[in-house]
């Protein structure tokens, strides 16, 4: 009984390169949201379809997908942004009940190597805060700076008296 999908063998360079579409899957906390970054290598300009799912209690729940239908409870809280070489899932109001194994599945149209899949186990207490600026942070940074500099200004006034 042979499955149709070819294994990724490191021997032929081309084959290995072709199998290495998803490079990295990482998760972090952005405020109250979970952000899952699925980085991939762009081998083709063909449209990319994706699926983010979570497996918990041995059941797979589709969170956001262009491949299959996502579950309502997740769809309303999730959104996905696509950038060059990165598909990003945001899951709002992330709680302990959203812990589990998150899976990113990518498929390029007309790519016959099959779907690329990578997993990451997400546990709330073990998540790092997201590094890098999001638009939200950029918009609030001047406010933060203002708040941070207020005590300084008061101190300076006090000295100049």
Describe the structure.
The protein is α+β, with helices and mostly antiparallel strands and 161 residues long. The protein has a domain at 21-127: Immunoglobulins (Immunoglobulin-like, Sandwich). Helix content is 23%, strand content 38%. The protein has 3 helices and 8 strands; from the N terminus they run αββββαββββα. The chain has helices spanning 13-19, 72-75, 135-160, and strands at residues 22-30, 33-40, 48-56, 59-65, 78-83, 86-91, 100-108, 116-122. The strands form 2 sheets. A 4-stranded antiparallel β-sheet has the order 1-2-6-5, with no helix packed on it. The chain has a 4-stranded antiparallel β-sheet with strand order 4-3-7-8. The chain is globular.
- Please indicate the percent range of residues in DSSP E strands (runs of 2 or more): 35-45%
Number of strands: 8
Query: In the CATH hierarchy, what is the superfamily of the domain at 21-127?
Result: Immunoglobulins
Q: Percentage of helical residues?
A: 10-25%
The chain-level mean pLDDT equals 79
CATH class of the domain at 21-127 reads Mainly Beta
In terms of quaternary structure, the protein is single chain
Helix tally equals 3
Low-pLDDT residue spans: 9-19
- CATH arch. level architecture of the domain at 21-127: Sandwich
Please describe the structure with a list of short key phrases separated by commas or semicolons.
161 residues; 38% strand; globular; Immunoglobulin-like; alpha+beta; 4-stranded antiparallel β-sheet; 8 strands
């Amino acid at each position: 009984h042979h499955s149709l999908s070819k294994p990724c063998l490191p021997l032929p360079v081309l084959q290995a390169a072709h199998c290495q579409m998803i490079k990295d899957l990482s998760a972090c906390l952005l405020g109250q949201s979970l952000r899952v970054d699925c980085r991939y290598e762009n081998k083709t300009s063909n449209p990319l379809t994706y699926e983010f799912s979570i497996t918990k209690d041995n059941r797979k729940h589709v969170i956001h997908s262009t491949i299959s239908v996502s579950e309502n409870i997740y769809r309303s809280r999730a959104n996905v942004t696509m950038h060059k070489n990165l598909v990003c899932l945001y899951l709002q109001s992330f709680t302990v009940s959203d812990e589990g194994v998150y899976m990113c599945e990518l498929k390029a149209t007309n790519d016959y190597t099959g779907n690329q899949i990578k997993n990451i186990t997400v546990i709330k207490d073990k998540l790092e805060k997201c590094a890098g600026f999001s638009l939200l942070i950029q918009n609030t940074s001047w406010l933060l700076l203002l708040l941070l500099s207020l005590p300084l200004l008061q101190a300076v006034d006090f000295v100049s008296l």
